[in-house]
Amino acid sequence: MRPLRSPASFHRDTEDPVAHSLVFPIYQTSSFLMPEGEHYRYGREWNPTVEELARKMDMLEGTPSSTCFSSGMGAITSLLLSHLRPGSRLLIHRDMFSRTYRFAREFLASFGVSVSVAEPGSEEFIRMVRSEKPDMALLESVTNPVLRVMDIPRIAEACREVGARFIVDSTLATPVNQKPFGMGADAVIHSASKFLSGHNDVIAGTLSGREEIVRRADDMRRNLGSTLDPPNRPSW
Ligand SMILES: Cc1ncc(COP(=O)(O)O)c(C=O)c1O
Question: What is the pLDDT at residue 22?
Fold first, then answer.
């Protein structure tokens, strides 16, 4: 299998610039001294350990920008709330993770977002992208729990045609098996609580993709408080 990166860049990218520890340290602090700690300020806003995880996600997903959340649902809800307004149109599909489906159908719909639901399968999703012309299309591939693999490049093409932002929840695939950003998605979500951390000892979420999308969701994270606690970061 092709290595993700050379050993030299792996070493450089995991180096702790303060003590040069092999494993990046956990900065277990709520606050940072000012003015030196201005970049981090306060732990709900940002933290060096979480920032290191975001950098690693950019390396893994091949994206320009990443941020991290308290859980996969923290990532999904923060992203959706940061981009959708009453009157916005969202496309999801029936066979996606049940909490994502319920958040869209129950909460976002009551908030005035017009939520369309595609039946399972790529062809139905593409058909609905073209007919509904959503502002955002949220796709899960591989799907949980029936493990359906969706046609990301063709769905990305349809989304581009209608000007929809295209987000892929890639939790079950992991970046080892698929990198949706390189296949045309605007952003990629992970529940890092699953295979990404791999040890069943973490609850976390990530969002990687276009800078503007990640920045808005990250700002919403800072408002909602769906922030990843540094000791809870995946242990890689
Ligand atoms: C595909 C998928 N997306 C999102 C989530 C939510 O992630 P979390 O449990 O980290 O909130 C899960 C599982 O829980 C999932 O399987």
Answer: 82
- Kindly list the distances between the CA atom of residue 41 and the CA atoms of 18, 152, 231, in Å, as whole numbers in the listed order: 18, 38, 18
Q: What is the mean pLDDT of residues 195-220?
A: 95
Is it the case that residue 186 has pLDDT exceeding 70?
yes
Inter-residue contact 151 to 183 (CB < 8 Å): no
Domain that holds residue 148: 47-232
Q: Which long-range contacts (CB under 8 A, 24 or more apart) does 108-115 make?
A: 108/80, 108/84, 111/84, 111/86, 112/85, 112/86, 112/87, 113/84, 113/85, 113/86, 113/87, 113/88, 113/89, 114/87, 114/88, 114/89, 114/90, 115/90, 115/91
Question: Is residue 23 situated within a structural domain?
Answer: no
Indicate whether 41 belongs to any domain. no
How many structural domains does the chain have? Answer: 1
* Ligand 1 pocket check for 167: Cβ under 6 Å: no
- CA 8 to centroid of ligand 1, rounded, Å: 33
CB of residue 114 inside a 6 A radius of ligand 1? no
> How far apart are alpha carbons 190 and 205 in whole angstroms?
6
pTM of the model: 0.93
CATH number for the domain spanning 62: value is: 3.40.640.10
Does residue 36 fall inside a structural domain? no
In a domain, 17, yes or no: no
Which pLDDT band holds residue 230 (cuts at 50, 70, 90)?
Answer: confident
- Check residue 16 and give its pLDDT: 77
User: Where does the pLDDT of residue 23 fall: very low under 50, low under 70, confident under 90, or very high at 90 and above?
Assistant: confident
Distance (angstroms) between ligand 1 centre and the Cα of 176 equals: 18
